[in-house]
Every structure is written in C-alpha cells, then in structure tokens.
Amino acid sequence: MGMSVSSGGSSVKAEPNVTPLVDVMLVLLIIFMVIIPTLTSGLNAAPPQGINLKKHPEEDGDVLLGIDRKGVYYLNRQPIRNETLEANLKRIFDARTEDKILYVRADKNLEYSKVQDAVDIAAKAGVRVTGLISEQLPGTEGQSVEEKKGGS
Which parts of the chain span the membrane according to its record (predicted)? Predict the structure, then answer.
C-alpha cells in the first residue's frame, strides 16, 4: 500500500470564503433599511401647551416680531419685507445699550423652521435674548410662584 502522488502538478487553490462577507453585508443592509426612513421623516412633534406663569404686559420699549401663517414678518405690528428683517433689527438693537430682548409671536400652524430662521436672523442682528410668546389656554389662570406664595 503506497501513496499515490499525481504527477500532474498539484496546485494550491486559494478560494475566498465569502459566507462571512455576505452575512455582514446582509446585516448592514437590514440596519440601513430600518434606520434611513426614520432619518428622512424628521421629527413630528407638537409644542407643549401650558399655562403662562405670569402675564407679560407689553411695554413701550418692547420689540415684537410677528410671523403669520404664510411666513410674513411683522415688526412691532407693521408688515415688513422678509429680506429687510436683519437690517431693521440691527438698526433697532444697535441703538440700545441694554435690554436687547426680542419677543416673537408666530402662528401656531407655521413650520418651526421658519421660527428658527427668524431667531437666527435676530441673533445675527444683535438680539441677546429671544422670548417666544404663547397664548393663555382658555379657562386657565396664569400665576407666578411669587404670587402664589404671597396669596397663601
């Protein structure tokens, strides 16, 4: 009994094992199929409704920026062109040495990105603090913590 050796010149075959590669690629494909739709859909969140802690009376020096549902800007209740918002705010807030506060009131059906754009423009124009004004919920009474302590 002997060993048979082929004289045909045996060569080593180097074939890659593609099974692990296919497994990894399928897992990655499944992960991306699950993740991508959530990334492109965006966040659909309604802002919370609450009770105003304290009613804010409008004073003469307050600067109010209104945005209607079409995205048109109103500065101190006067309509302005959207392109001139930054220049108008810069003119107002450059003249002030303190109290660089802008109050923003926007329509509840307006896309939040439009409000964020206005806040960004205001920050570039020199506004230090931006306050967003909401409406008092019907049937609620706003009270600050100090008023509640004083009334007890």
Answer: 24-46
Dihedral of CA 124/125/129/131: which sign?
A: negative
Alpha helices in the chain, H assignment, sequence order = 19-41, 85-94, 112-124, 145-151
Angle formed at CA 30 by CA 27 and CA 37, multiple of 5 degrees:
150
For residue 151 the two structure tokens come to 């009334």
Comparing CA positions, the residue from 97, 89, 147 lying closest to residue 122 is: 89
Task: Read off the pLDDT of residues 7-60 as tens digits, 9 standing for 90 and up.
Answer: 555 678 888 888 999 999 999 999 988 887 776 654 444 444 555 555 555 667
Task: Give the closest residue to 50 by CA, choosing from 133, 145, 150.
Answer: 133
pTM: 0.55
Q: How far is CA 96 from CA 63, 66, 91, 125, 129, in A?
A: 12, 21, 9, 12, 13
CB 65 within 8 A of CB 75: yes
Token pair 């100090």 is at which residue? 146
Domain assignments of the chain as residue spans, ordered by start: 51-152
